[in-house]
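Handout, section 4.2: multi-component inputs.
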Amino acid sequence: MMRKMWYKPALAALALGLCVACNEEEEGTVVVPPVPTTSGLYVLNTGNWGGNDASIQYFDLKGLSIGGDLFAAANGFGLGDLGQDLCLYGSKLYATVSGSSKLEVMDRNCKVVKTIPVRAEDGTTPAEPRYMTACDGCVYFTAYDGTVSRLDTATLEITGKVAVGDHPEALTNANGKLYVNISGYGSGTTVAVVDVASFTKTKDIAVKLNPYTQCFTGDDGYVYTVSNGNYAGSPGMSEDQYVYGTLQRIDPVTDTVEDVCRATYAANHGSKMYVLYSEYYLPETKRAFVLDLNTGEEADFIDLDEFSSPNAIGVDPSTGDVYVADVPYGANSTVRVYDAEGNLKNTFEAGYSTSRFVFVTE
Amino acid sequence: MGKKGTEACLRWGFVGWMYLACAFMAEAQVPADTTENGLRRMPGVTVTERRLPASLSAGSPLQRMDRAELERFGALEVSDAVRHFSGVSVKDYGGIGGMKTVSVRSLGAQHTAVCYDGVAVSDCQSGQVDISRFSLDNVSALSLTIGQGDDIFLPARMLASAGVLAIETARPDFGRSPFRLSAKVKAGSFGLANPSLSAAFRLGRGVALAFDGDYLRADGNYPFEYVNGTKRIEAKRNNSDIQTYRGEVNLYASLRGDQELRAKAYLFHSGRGLPGSVVYDNPYAEERLHDRNYFGQLNYEAHFSPRWKLKAGGKFNYTWNRDTDRKAAGWQDDRFKQTETYLTATLWSEPLRGLSFSLAQDFAYNDLSTTLAGCQYPERYTVLTALSAQYRRPAFRLTASLLNTYVTERVRVGMAADDRKRLSPSFGLSWRPVRAVAWRLRASYKDIFRVPTFNDLYYRQIGNTRLKSESTRQWNVGTTWGGRISSVWESLDVSVDAYYNKVKDKIVAIPTMFVWKMSNVGKVETVGVDVNVATGIRMPEDFRLHLSATYNFMRAEDVTDRDSKLWRNQIVYTPRHSGSGSVTWSTPWVDVAYNVVYASERYRMAQNSADNRIRPYADHSLSLFRTFSWGRHALRLQADALNLGGKNYEIVRFYPMPGRNYKFTVTYDL
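Output:
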């Protein structure tokens, strides 16, 4: 009797959740809402640490509406703890779920195709997968066992693993190479380079302190990475010790690094780099701007004072609209959508700790 | 909500209180007057004047459970008993090794001082005290004071918190025997074994030495059931084992000239696994925590004359923790060491009959060192001075205190937080309007704060040395009534309190674009009502029935920012309705105690969305016990069935509580 009572309300709640997610569907049946393959974006909500509340939503650009948790609707259960990254490649979606230490492979409706537990060498210690990049029929992901793993997207088998450095985070691919931020849990100063063809690490490139969540390939073919620095302005720190959050550019042919501008988050569209920047201890540095990569000119973009804590930025490659997620303390995220000039177009509420926008471009 | 709203709240609270008070008077007074009119007129007989518990005459809410009540209740752990106090929530991470902290009236554990034999137990690192580390075996009384207490002959530190949970251990009562011996074995589900031994010796006139020791082990690997959507999770807690050793030596000496000396040495060692929260698809848990805690304390009290008293004491505390974990990124091994040196002296005098004063001076030194990267090795010097006054008349009692706090800090690396200075006033009033009736009205106010903890200030990256203290203001109005209805209905004690709390500069970790930082962002407004009823009924033969119940209403809302999503949301882990009930039926053969604790829904996160909701729970337990005595020997047998409903309810989200479980206890006293 007790047992029944325990899960009945949960089922009811789930059914209710489904109805919200897909309002025209029949009550109580698990029906996957159709996902348009054009004009829309997936929104990944990391959720709270230990909260088992990671979720994926879909924002429909035609109806300008955000759906409920697509993953829960498609599978009947939640994505898990800490959805770290989301990657759309070919016909499938890939999600690294860090707390649950797994990689979910899904169809475009978020229906699970395969769940791959991610473990360290010993086979038991959770390796906490982090970020992904995809190329040449494979998805590559970093994990806290200090490795990058290669998933063959045809067979959905892990076909290789290479050690890259302590606490690897965001990574990207360019010119047949993977570029991996080695955060060192705050003390890292390198970007590891892995040759895709041989799947071996070839070198470490020196960058500024603490390269972390931002590492992507720009439309110009360069690799962009943000080092978060050493919390410049901390009490007791002298100015010559400051390492500011910095966007750096790596030439994938020569692997030379140059500083671009100060940054915390960045997103690229054509020749424009949208940058959000703030140093906690130097509040006057807080600003959002657009950098013209050709001319080097910076123009003010939006007013960051309207945000509690910006947590992610993304640019729709087809429209050029800029999506910025605001993560307030203790509450659901708010996503603000701006046009390329910084005019507010739209606002919608997402889940907890929105961290990634994945645009559907076909 | 502004001034107008605040006034409305207060008015509402006052009206509610008056209504309850009147309603109660009407109900309780009528039968008393009619049935016992004759008796009351008899000279020298005051039937309604049962010796009342201090909780009914106090100027602010005071709840107390002495040894007899704890036994009657069948309580086995300190937390079991504290959960039945009104206005209290115990945050429990589940199981025997799970941390348990006490929060009073939604203010948070860091606003509750835990005091062990007259000296506060402190943790400068986290600011909260895990009450699961105290054994109930040698406890003689537990009491909880909210706001300004009535006793002004106290160390200054006892005035420096919004609430005080006092744990008092028993001073051996020898009778005619030169020694006392007590042996106890507790065993229960999930591998619990807990033998304990205490022995006390009379060394001479007024000198006694007592030893207490216990060992506890448990596997704690209880099964639980969870549901992730349509997926059912049936698993056991893993890495939940615990082993603890506890030892205590107490020396009591009554010296000439009405002086008392008490020395205590305390040792606590434990090693435990931390099962962590239930993480979907990842049951891995390897984190282990080792604790070592030693302290020695000395208390001295002298009554020079009926008009002059002095109390002085000192304590040295050493706490060491080691936290290890095996992670994919490598082996983690962090160590933490903190010490406290504490000195206190309180002088009390009553220059005029009924008018007394006290001056308390405390000094504390705390330091913390850790092996974490960027440890700043903070040291804190705290100077507390309290001046209190009390005026007592038969009809009323007025107590007022003024506490001065001065805190200064030093660090070896980086910058220390600024000095803190603050004056904190408080007062309490208890009034008995009708002389012949044990009916009292009370009102109290307290303005107090908590200094940010070392974690708040200095923890790697998240710490913030610019933090202000988190301040609380508490208003309370209440009424109490205690009496005897008839020779059968032996006692009826009732108290109803309405309160209003305001918390400012609440310290929380907030995301700031890239770093999480401790910040003073929150304002919280709490309106609540606590109702306590306790009654005893004597039945023919040796049957006796004790009933007690509490009901708490608590509307604790975030009032930081009107435009935020959190505006007027109930703060985290705070039930709007909660309560407890207890029935003990004593018979010549066996005593049966039934206890229940209830809490309505709570929220895990600041936003009260459905995803964050934690279900209401009711935890029922049943105890059977009997004491056999022959000569000077006494043997008590007790059997307990806990969480009868068997549900893995949650107090903290994703930390399931153990389902139905059993304990057996055998106690032998000589």
